[in-house]
Protein 1
Amino acid sequence: MKFNRIVCVDKTKLQEWAIKELQEFSVEEIEVYNDYPSSKKEILNRIQEADAVLVSWHTELDEEIIEKSPDLKYI
């Protein structure tokens, strides 16, 4: 199975080899952020059109964010 778009929403601390492995499951280049989003708006901008996201314990994807992300299938 391939995802259209995978996004690492914040500083997940994934090592480079892990990101390369994940790339095999994505049609597009994986987008990796190395900071923490400061608002819900920023989170939504980052995960726009993503169907899979990776997130650390630091960033909350609440019900509002999930509802506004219709393409999202996996967290």
Note: The mean pLDDT is 96.
Protein 2
Amino acid sequence: WSGSNDGLSAALTNCTEIAFRKGKLKNHYPVTDKNGFIFPDSEAAYKKYKTGDLNKDMAIMTRIIAAKLKQYPRLVKHIAKRGGTEWLESCSHIVGVKKSRWEGIGRESNFISCLIAAYEIVINE
């Protein structure tokens, strides 16, 4: 999450601009979509394209995170160094938003599930 003291975790969140402002990141992580539009971070891209339908939104989230990982391959390398998919499955995404459909631990978190799917897309290309 954007308040994580772990740099990789802060970089993997969608809200990297908030993490940067909080001093948790030293770099910005803008994301360019398939149309060439540059968003300040993954969260901004997601907000533009979300539909409200969980299945569609998870597919959108996965595509956005995959784009981010392709644009920042060092994130993929750091995930791999920590254990890849197995490490991601041990992660949690808890941001404190009531009734958030994205929170949870491991694959019980829709966000972590999308992150895992995006990571696996990128490493298998």
Note: The mean pLDDT is 91.
Protein 3
Amino acid sequence: MAQLNFNASEIETSSHDPIPAGNYEAVVAASEMRPVKSGNGMGINLTFEIVSEGPAKGRKVWTWINYQHPKADVQRIGQEELARLCKAVGIANLTDTEQLHNIPLIISVGVDKNDSSRNIIKRYEKKSAGIVATSTVDDGTPPWRR
């Protein structure tokens, strides 16, 4: 048995529920290249952190991109997604996934239709100069009225 002196009431816990669907300013906070489950290809696991002001600030959203895959269509779709991400952060020639880190962009987040406990990233957009870091949820409610 391990002796502890821990008071759980002193620790604020965050929700693990998915964030509401909408557009959020985010940055790639972490990236990792790993083999696909079959072992016949490589994928990129990306962690995005929401930096928009509002209740989702600091929350994380994950995505997996099939970079190399034995099925041509799967690889093409993955590489197209990676290209959209690169264009959104202004990188033409990606040589290391760390190049994607900490560059603000807008991600369009949805809720996975097959698993309502998970978020998915539907789109990447370049962050325009002068955009205030706030989120816009699909119901059209501006952040200052939530």
Note: Residues 131-138, 140-146 have pLDDT under 50 and may be disordered.
